[in-house]
Structures are given as C-alpha cells and as structure tokens.
Amino acid sequence: EVQLVGSGGVVVHPGGSLRLSCAASGFIFDDYTMHWVRQAPGKGLEWVSLINWDGSDTYYADSVKGRFTISRDNSKNSLYLQMNSLTTEDTALYYCAKDSGHYYGAYYFDYWGLGTQVTVSS
Amino acid sequence: DIQMTQSPSSLSASVGDRVTITCRASQGIRSYLAWYQQKPGKVPNLLIYAASTLHSGVPSRFSGSGSGTDFTLTISSLQPEDVATYYCQNYNSAPLAFGQGTRLEIK
Prior knowledge:
The structure holds two protein chains of two kinds. Helices cover 0% and strands 49% of the residues of chain A. By secondary structure, chain A is mainly β. In chain A, a hairpin with a 6-residue loop joins strand 5 (45-51) and strand 6. Chain B has strands spanning 4-7, 10-13, 19-25, 33-38, 45-49, 53-54, 62-67, 70-75, 84-90, 97-98, 102-106. Chains A and B meet through strand 5 and strand 10 of A and strand 4, strand 5, strand 9 and strand 10 of B.
C-alpha cells in the first residue's frame, strides 16, 4: 500500500524558514517523480514543485521560485521542501504527491499524502 | 504559463441528474488533462487522466472528454456520495496548473 507521510509543519513568523519532509513507502521511490501541492484554507489546489527520480530536474511555481527548494534522498525514501522567506500567503496544507508515471514524469498525481499544515503568522 | 478556467464555480443538482463541468485551457494542451475529486475534509483523488481515461476503481458514471483547449467532466447520474469539489489539471508541461475548482452539491 502506498503511503506518503508528511512532517515538519508548524507555525512560523513571516520571513522565517521551514523544512517539510515526506516519507514514502509501498512503492519503489526512486522510480518516480514527486511533487508538492498546497491548498490554502478554503481555497483550491496549487501545484508548488516537482523533482524527477534522481533530483537532476526540478521545477517550481512562479509564486515560490527563488524561495523554495525541493530535494529528495532516495536512500531514505524521502522528499523534502525547504521553504525560506515565508509570507502569510504561504499558509496552506502542503501535500506530497506521487507522480503516476513509472520511470518518467507523467505530471499528474495518483497518490497524495494527508498533508502537513504550515501557518505563517506574526 | 497556461491558465485553467473551470465553470461553473459551483452547482447544485438532484440525485440522478446528469452533471457537466467544463474546463478551458488558455492554450492548447492536447489531451494532457486530469480531473480530481476532493470530498470535504479529504485528500484529492484522481478520477480521469489523458482527458478521458478513467482511473482504476472510479465508477463508470464518471466520464471525460475534450482535447486542445476545451474539456468536460460528466457524471451521468448524480449520487449523494459525489458531493465534492472537482478540479481539472493541466499536465502538458511545467509549471503545472489546476482550475479553480467546481463545488458540487445535492439539491
């Protein structure tokens, strides 16, 4: 059974930093591209970032480019999101999501974690 | 970047009704479109990919169509368990984009 378990979400002040983690199990982690998707309270889904199987390719939404860094450690079956220069606009539930494409990035999502809450507030 | 626009933003229909949600891309995306269902308080679930291919385990009352810029999600006979917000998603290329969502309620 595929499981994606997020951690690292807390309350942080504007301008602060945070690192989210997502522990994956139930599939061959390094065969798949992985994504972060977020959802602000009462709002829709927003794709944040993706990383290919070996970390050599990454993409970001314009809203986080230059502030967020996605990474992965295939030896630990883990995905990360380093978030810097946080603003109140970054307050959201952050989902880690598995790409559906095996060996290649299909860029749509067949499994989602339960989400990690990030609140940016003074 | 490609923008995705869904309509309507919300709708209310009766059990057994045929329901259609539309999604328009700001430029052509061939058939690189997925639909997700998010029930209240739950994680999104994949319904359809490649514009019209039903994901494993999804009831056959759901169907998708379209290519290029205009797409539709249809529920042939609305059931109470279909109350949810539905999102389309372009996956033609990064940056990826979701529509703003369509909230579906039962009358």
